[in-house]
Design a protein that fits this description.
- The complex is a heterodimer.
- By secondary structure, chain A is mainly β.
- Chain A has a single domain, classed as Ubiquitin-like (UB roll) (Roll).
- Chain A is built from one helix and five strands, in the order ββαβββ.
- In chain A, strand 3 and strand 4 form a beta hairpin.
- The longest helix of chain A is centred in the middle third of the chain and has 7 residues.
- Chain B has a single domain, classed as Rossmann fold, CATH 3.40.50.
- Chain B has nine helices and eight strands.
- The chains are: A mainly beta, B alpha/beta.
- At the A-B interface, loops of A face helix 4, strand 5, strand 6 and strand 8 of B.
Chain lengths: 68, 262
């Protein structure tokens, strides 16, 4: 069974009980230390494994290596 | 808001000359500023970490606003590739140290603002000394590593750190206040990625650094509504601002171990 989330601005279908960690793997972002935003709230690194996304959630991966 | 003692409580606030009253008139007539607020601005010392894309703008607006003392640090010389966004520096500045170019412009802009320019690198072992007795840190660096040094110095000194960063059409800003908010490394704990030139269109640092300067002035004045516990993300791609709520990370290895100066 699948749910629909908005990932980096695009609607995507993912399996029920998908975690942030699994999304990072799906998006090939696991090793890039991206900042994860879930419904306008920051997700701590230690919560990636246990935070499960829900239908309609909006998830953004933000590159922390910004310049100046 | 908790009083942050941005100006030295031991020192009486300087008075304003007739010329200064005229120069800052359009600020002074703002009810939340007034003459007393302008004197607070004059009594403040602000550390601007870098005079590139962000620092060109934040330092300029802070000097124009009448900050009494502005300390700017940068190690680099002006290059042609800087000029699309680092508008402090002009074509005839190519080859000059950025701090020299900036110091010249800022002094001409406002001779009441004392500019302390330091040409050199910001490192973990010298950052606290470089910041000295400045009471606000404005981030205008271009990399994660130096931002972490600034964060730790902010925690050690117990002074606010106004973070800003830009990438292509996007930017973000937040204010970290030791003892009150998350720290920079609560939300950016990872190591820096691979070194790469970051594409930046000039107005993006202009927007973010303008907000940083505004944030600094509001902190000096003790006004409400600063970006504490909020990361403001600007997308120039679709012209939107959105706010990300950030809490202190109970497992942060930095702000849970660095002794915060009360």
């Amino acid at each position: 069974m699948e749910i629909e989330v908005i990932l980096n601005g695009t609607k995507e279908k993912v399996p029920v009980d998908t975690t942030i960690s699994q999304l990072l793997v799906l998006e090939n972002e696991r090793d890039k230390h991206v900042v994860v935003e879930l419904n306008n709230k920051y997700v701590f690194l230690q919560k990636y494994e246990t935070t499960v996304v829900s239908d309609g959630d909006r998830i953004e991966f933000i590159n922390p290596d910004f310049g100046g | 808001m908790k009083e942050m003692n941005i100006t030295d409580p031991e020192q009486p606030l300087s008075s304003l000359s007739e010329d200064e009253l005229l120069r800052y008139h359009r600020q002074i007539i703002i009810p939340q500023i007034g003459e007393e607020g302008q004197r607070k601005i004059k009594g403040a010392g602000v550390f601007v970490a870098g005079v590139g894309g962000l620092g060109s703008i934040s330092a300029y607006y802070l000097a124009a606003a009448g900050i009494g003392r502005l300390r700017i640090v940068d190690r680099d010389r002006v290059e042609a590739g800087n000029l699309n966004r680092q508008i402090m520096h002009w074509t005839n500045d190519i080859g000059a140290y950025k701090v020299d170019s900036a110091s010249e412009k800022l002094s001409k802009l406002n001779h009441y603002c004392h500019i302390e320019s330091i040409q050199g690198e910001m490192r973990e072992d010298n950052i606290v000394e470089l910041i000295g007795d400045c009471s606000i840190i404005v981030d205008a660096t271009d990399n994660l590593e130096t931002r972490k040094f600034l964060n730790r110095a902010s925690l050690q000194k117990g002074i606010p750190f106004i973070y800003g960063g830009v990438d292509r059409f996007n930017g973000m800003i937040s204010t970290f206040v030791p003892g009150e908010t998350a720290c920079f490394e609560c939300i950016f704990p990872g190591a820096a990625g691979e070194k790469r030139p970051i594409g930046i269109i000039g107005p993006t640092p202009g927007i973010i650094a303008s907000l940083q300067a505004l944030e600094a002035v509001k902190i000096i004045l003790g006004l409400e509504g600063i970006l504490k516990g909020r990361l403001l993300f600007f997308s120039g791609t679709d012209m939107t601002f959105r706010e990300i709520r950030i809490d202190k990370n109970p497992e942060c290895r930095i702000c849970n171990t660095v002794a915060i100066k009360e």
